[in-house]
Amino acid sequence: MSKKIAEFMAKVIEKNPAEKEFHQAVLEVAESVMPLIEATPKYKNSMILERMVEPERVLMFRVPWLDDKGEIQINRGFRIEMNSAIGPYKGGLRFHPSVNLGVLKFLAFEQVFKNSLTTLPMGGGKGGSDFDPKGKSDNEVMKFCQSFMLELCKYIGPNTDVPAGDIGVGGREIGYMFGQYKRVRNEFTGVLTGKGLNWGGSLIRSEATGYGCVYFVQEMLKTRGESLKGKTCAVSGSGNVAQYTVEKLIELGAKVVTLSDSDGFIYDAGGIDKKELACVLNLKNVKRARIKDCAKEFTCKYFEKKRPWSVKCDIAFPSATQNEISGDDAKMLVKNGCIAIGEGANMPTTPEGIKVFQNAKILYAPGKAANAGGVATSGLEMSQNSMRLSWTREEVDRRLHDIMIAIHEQCVKYGKEGKYINYVKGANLAGFIKVADAMIDQGLV
Ligand code: NDP
Ligand code: 2IT
What we know:
By secondary structure, the protein is of the alpha/beta class.
């Protein structure tokens, strides 16, 4: 680590103690952009990175609600409004017991660069709660969502801050929150994305993160004259991102051998087919069951409390959560012949793991580039809401595909190191320059 970066990080850590995921995300960006900042007086003199790591606003609030037994529950709600230089704050809401300020600040920070890469005018934000939707009734989830939105609705709006889903927040939760916002503000507007299709949602938004990640990996493979056809893929997670990653991979002739959740993973040597995927979707989205229940429905092995990275695969799609690929997992993947990684999740690979992939010179796409299709399609939902029009499935999918190709091109432009493409550096630099220049144009903001 250079002296400059060490000094910068020491200040970030001192000012934001105990936010280890935030430190991790900031360090990764600092390593990519510091040489450019040092060489560019307008960035260096304007303290641009010091400004970027300070959120424009942090909201933290009490969320009281009554459970089915009539007992009072109290959760904590958050919204990090990180950067609005290139558009309204935009980013998901995460409901998971592990949510805290540091986790949401890392996600909001990543979102700023990701949204910049999408080519659309969106700033960065993230929010959520330590509420755990698992094991709660629909009524309890609704009560929580209504209480959460009763406070959040004071700070968001279609031109200010537009939240969406993330872990633990899908169509059901977006519906309850949208209903509450509309009721309190008396306004039918595109304040959230990921809405239902008959009340302002966009076709392909549900599919977008997974499809987009696969489109991105297709572009990476092309740089080495490869394609997805016949490739064996390991996918982690079994939620929104994982499900549509698998759907697109099957369509393009790849073989998906794993899916997981926080309890373990399933391994299907013959490959998960369309029928089995439909079964996973029903079990996870309707019955809200566990991935091990899938093993009972179709023939596959189940590995309790294990992650799928020991399985032999050509391409890995980590699509569950942060830091799910350790240095040792990465070594195992490389040893087993893995040639590419497409991060559906945000920051799923630890810094040690990233080094392993880059030293092995395999194709490694960081989440802020590879999973940007989700928020990009949220951006397309916002455009359709503004026009009060909806585009066809084909139209939205075509735009998503074009955006993923454009993100790949930006990564290549800024990440080329001889013959190797450093996608981390490419994504960070391309995302940074647009936001930094906008901040400078707008004065001391
Ligand atoms: P879902 O809630 O739909 O699914 C999350 C999946 O990941 C579940 O299978 C869940 O298992 C697993 N998971 C969550 N937390 C953990 C954990 N701590 N350890 C192990 N497994 C875990 O979320 P999404 O599919 O939407 O999100 C997955 C990832 O993709 C996240 O990193 C998210 O930030 C990222 N992402 C999502 C986008 C979107 O549009 N939804 C866009 C871009 C990125 P279990 O049921 O056991 O908790
Ligand atoms: O991490 C992400 O990009 C998301 N969860 C999607 C955000 C959005 O606003 O669609």
